[in-house]
Amino acid sequence: MKDVVWKVMNFPGDLGSEGRRALRKELLGALRASGCAVIVDLSRRQSLDHHDIDLLLECAACVAGRDAKLIFVAGSPTLRALLEVSRIASVVPVCNSTEEAFTYPQIAAETIHVPAHIKDMGAQQ
Hints:
alpha/beta; Transcription Regulator spoIIAA; disordered C terminus; 5-stranded parallel β-sheet
C-alpha cells in the first residue's frame, strides 16, 4: 500500500488581493510538494468569483499529468453547481465534506494519514 500524506487547506471566505496572492502561493506550494496530496475545503465560501475559479483551475493544472492528488470540498449545493458549470468538477473530484473526501474511491485503497483536527471533528459530531 502506498502512504499518502493529505493536507487539508481551507479556502477563506473573503479574500483581498493580498490574501489571494498568499493563498495562491500556499496552495501551489502544497501541490508541488512531493508525496503531498491536497484537499481544498471551499465550505466557508458562499460563492466563487472569476479569481477563485482561475485559482482552482491553476491548482488543477498543477496536478495534471503528475502523480499528485487534489480534491475539492464544495460544502454546499451552490458551490458544487458552480464547480460543475465551470467544468472544474470534470477534472478534479468534488466532495460535499472533508470526511467524504477522505473516503473518495480513488484514495480508499491507500493508507491515509488523517490530520488530528479532522479526527477530532468526527468525534465532536
